[in-house]
Amino acid sequence: MSKRIAFAPLAAIGLGFSLLAGSLVAPASAHAEGEIRIAEQFGIVYLLLNVVRDQQLIEKYGKQEGIEIKVDWTQLSGGAAVNDALLSGSIDIAGAGVGPLLTVWDRTRGKQNVKAVASLGNFPYYLLSNNPNVKTIADFTEQDRIAVPAVGVSVQSRLLQYAAAKQWGDKDFNRLDKYTLAVPHPDATAALIAGGTELTGHFSNPPFQDQALQNPNVHVVLNSYDVLGPNSPTVLFATEKFRDENPKTYKAFVEALTEAAEFAQKDKGAAADTYLRVTKAKIDRATLLKIIDNPQIEFTVSPKNTYPLAEFLYRVGAIKNKPASWEDYFFQDAKPLQGS
Question: Which residues form a coiled coil (predicted)?
Fold first, then answer.
């Protein structure tokens, strides 16, 4: 019989990541132009924000707009927590997967009107397992548990549903949901590597998936690119109110993010150094550089192939409003994104 999960400290297995839990507070009062509160999660998919932070790019572009901008950074785990923080007024910019974006876009349409600001890039996400009997998603049983950042909401959870629908049909899209658990990526990686717990699967992201695969007992069950094609799984989003009431701060943020994407895509070595410096991650630089030098990874603010997931979620009733295109759930700014 498998053991219940008792997560080992990450440092004990050499991953060296720390969970900075952000506490949700009561709705904050509206603040004046010149302040922005950003919530990110874990992994290389948030590298553009690491660059923005390291080079103080928001502050730089704020000065060009004639304002001093105070930037507050928070780290959360899971799209549900991020969405709660955004809607409570605790943060202004939410970093999460396309799944949480579509959920909150659907629920706030005609009210807070939450939409995406930009993509954080194109990244393949791997569904991993340390169970040698699990070769495909059809092999998971009641004895298995799959870690995702947020059950039924995170982009990993939605990708698993998308894969299930392709395997068994739309009516069984949530067939694997009962096997999923909400576990932060660092902890899930530690549990998968250590073994001996009920957690035998993890729908991960880089660099955690790459670190887990260094263990010969861990293998890839599913690559998100095989299910959906190359896509932008993680995005940044905000309320219409923040965008409208803080045009200079918002513009500075968009400009900062655009510069960060150009920097990271052009110089992967400098991007790797930035990630290590900002996150303090205990990962070998050569290993990290090999991960982000993967030709399947692209740092860009333009979203790619997000609409098929939106269509799917509407088709199975996970969202009530059907977007006409990706432009319905992305803000279209002065320099409109070229996406899909």
Answer: none
